[in-house]
């Protein structure tokens, strides 16, 4: 408790509980691949688990996807304004080789008098064809679309445009394009629908044979479409990445809140509710995980249940804390999407 004397008058303040939260351990950052990233490629950086995150690029998720050179670090929070900072991670970009060009060594179509076509790539340090072969020249016996991926000395790659081999009985279908709605980066538990152009028959790298496939795990996906037996074209690959989950809550979080929020998580706007015993004017405050004030609004309270709607469209996705003045110890955690 605190006793103060002003102009001979004594005032006594009630005791208050002070909670000291130790800072979290210094976070570690892991990567899904080498820190030397080929131009046009991505690498995911993931922090060790914590209740809250703030990356040097402003992101507040546990994982971030990086496709440019730079130095990145992450703050992990044990409580608002209580954090530790990781060691910096440097990302560099490497040049990719020129796109390879495929030419036919002779005729480029199959017929009873010419049952095979030889395909040759422009020069590179290494080769990988869509057939799985790794030589500069391959021989194909089936009509379809073929690609080659050229590899440079630094490990970066470039893939050719499809080369169409037709036959007397088959003109391969157009090369399919895989489409999806939104981002190719998903959260655990989410599903991304990959969709192919329309065709007679489908064969996905997942083993599915439908036009659309649900994907709930990271990986690289392709689809081969057919307009007849052994008459096909194969799409360019599409990569799906998955973020890591954050730790569920701060250890000292109070779950018996005088205020509540719905929906939570929320986006755009959120409804706060509170019960009051009498008429009053409350002040609703909000902070981000770094302790920065992001919202202050007055709330006219009447006896009974009170509700107010707060516009949060300007807030970046992440964790925030809201409370009423005088109830700082009962902060409500809100997740903004």
How does this model look, in words?
The chain has 337 residues and is an all-beta fold. It has strands at 2-6, 9-13, 29-31, 36-38, 43-47, 52-55, 63-66, 70-72, 74-79, 82-85, 89-94, 102-104, 109-110, 117-121, 126-129, 137-140, 144-146, 148-151, 157-159, 163-167, 185-186, 192-195, 201-204, 212-215, 219-221, 223-228, 231-234, 238-242, 259-262, 269-276, 280-288, 293-301, 304-311, 318-324, 332-336. Strand 9 and strand 10 (82-85) form a beta hairpin. The chain is elongated and about 95 Å long.
Topology of helices and strands:
Layout: E1 2-6, E2 9-13, E3 29-31, E4 36-38, E5 43-47, E6 52-55, E7 63-66, E8 70-72, E9 74-79, E10 82-85, E11 89-94, E12 102-104, E13 109-110, E14 117-121, E15 126-129, E16 137-140, E17 144-146, E18 148-151, E19 157-159, E20 163-167, E21 185-186, E22 192-195, E23 201-204, E24 212-215, E25 219-221, E26 223-228, E27 231-234, E28 238-242, E29 259-262, E30 269-276, E31 280-288, E32 293-301, E33 304-311, E34 318-324, E35 332-336
Parallel strand pairs: 4-11, 13-20, 21-28
Antiparallel strand pairs: 1-2, 3-5, 5-7, 6-9, 8-11, 9-10, 12-14, 14-16, 15-18, 17-20, 18-19, 22-24, 23-26, 25-28, 26-27, 29-30, 30-33, 31-32, 31-34, 34-35
């Amino acid at each position: 408790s605190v006793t103060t004397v002003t102009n001979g008058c004594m005032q006594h303040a009630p005791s208050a509980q002070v909670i000291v939260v130790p800072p979290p351990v210094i976070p570690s950052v892991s990567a899904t691949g080498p820190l030397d990233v080929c131009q046009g490629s991505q690498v995911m950086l993931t922090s060790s688990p914590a209740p809250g995150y703030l990356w040097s690029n402003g992101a507040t998720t546990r994982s971030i996807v990086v496709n440019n050179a730079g130095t990145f670090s992450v703050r992990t929070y044990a409580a608002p304004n209580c954090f530790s900072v990781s060691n910096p991670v440097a990302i560099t970009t490497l040049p990719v080789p020129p796109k390879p060009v495929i030419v036919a060594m002779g005729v480029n179509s199959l017929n009873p008098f010419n049952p095979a076509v030889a395909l040759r790539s422009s020069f590179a340090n290494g080769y990988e064809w869509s057939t799985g072969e790794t030589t500069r020249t391959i021989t194909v016996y089936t009509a379809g679309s073929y690609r080659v991926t050229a590899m440079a000395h630094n490990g970066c790659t470039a893939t050719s445009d499809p080369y169409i081999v037709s036959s007397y009985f088959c003109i391969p279908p157009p090369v399919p394009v895989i489409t999806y709605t939104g981002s190719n980066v998903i959260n655990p538990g989410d599903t991304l629908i990959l969709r192919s152009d329309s065709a007679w028959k489908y064969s996905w790298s997942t083993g599915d044979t439908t036009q659309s496939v649900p994907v709930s795990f990271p990986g690289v996906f392709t689809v081969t479409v057919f307009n007849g037996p052994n008459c096909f074209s194969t799409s360019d690959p599409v990569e799906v990445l998955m973020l890591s989950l954050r730790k569920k809550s701060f250890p000292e979080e109070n779950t018996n809140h005088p205020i509540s929020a719905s929906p939570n998580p929320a986006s755009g706007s959120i409804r706060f509710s509170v019960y009051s015993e009498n008429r009053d004017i409350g002040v609703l405050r909000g902070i981000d995980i770094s302790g920065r004030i992001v919202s202050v609004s007055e709330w006219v309270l009447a006896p009974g249940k009170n509700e107010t709607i707060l516009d949060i469209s300007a807030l970046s996705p992440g964790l925030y804390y809201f409370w009423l003045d005088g109830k700082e110890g009962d902060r409500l955690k809100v997740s903004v999407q």
